[in-house]
């Protein structure tokens, strides 16, 4: 029997939506990074993030977002900003019962995007 995908272990779309909802609640409550989302349609942003995490986790989703460098270039993000966002994602994964090894797999994928997101 094939190994269960990370997406399935997370609990599928509903579980990913719960993580993303919790994640953005945390981000928007953090004054150090919330301002990056002032002019963003958060319904669209949350849906976009659900697709991204689902794709990273091997779900049945095609992620068609913009190139990470292009999508974040205008924001002039710092390493501290990236770390704060990653910490909020880690907390949301933990709060929603994602197993540590599965959370690490997702966070490793996010960490691999650090350089392009920061324009490096």
Automatic annotation (TrEMBL):
Task: Kindly list any coiled-coil regions of this protein.
Answer: none
Q: Which UniProt keywords apply?
A: Heme, Iron, Metal-binding, Transport
- InterPro entries hit by this protein: Globin-like_sf, Globin/Proto, Hemoglobin_trunc, Hemoglobin_trunc_I
Endoplasmic reticulum recorded as keyword: no
Q: Which Pfam families match?
A: Bac_globin (PF01152)
GO molecular function terms listed in the Swiss-Prot or TrEMBL record: heme binding; metal ion binding; oxygen binding
| Family assignment from sequence similarity | Belongs to the truncated hemoglobin family. Group I subfamily.
Protein name in the entry: Myoglobin
Q: Which organism is it from?
A: Haloferax sulfurifontis ATCC BAA-897
């Amino acid at each position: 029997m094939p190994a269960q995908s990370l997406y399935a272990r997370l609990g599928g779309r509903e579980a990913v939506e719960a993580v993303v909802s919790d994640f953005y609640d945390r981000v928007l409550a953090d004054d150090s990074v919330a301002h990056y989302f002032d002019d963003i349609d958060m319904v669209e942003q949350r849906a976009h993030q659900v697709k991204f995490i689902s794709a990273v986790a091997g779900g049945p989703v095609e992620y068609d977002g913009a190139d990470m460098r292009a999508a974040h270039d205008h924001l002039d993000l710092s390493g501290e900003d990236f770390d704060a966002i990653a910490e909020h994602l880690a907390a949301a994964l933990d709060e929603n019962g994602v197993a540590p090894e599965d959370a690490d797999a997702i966070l490793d994928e996010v960490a691999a995007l650090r350089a392009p997101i920061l324009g490096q």
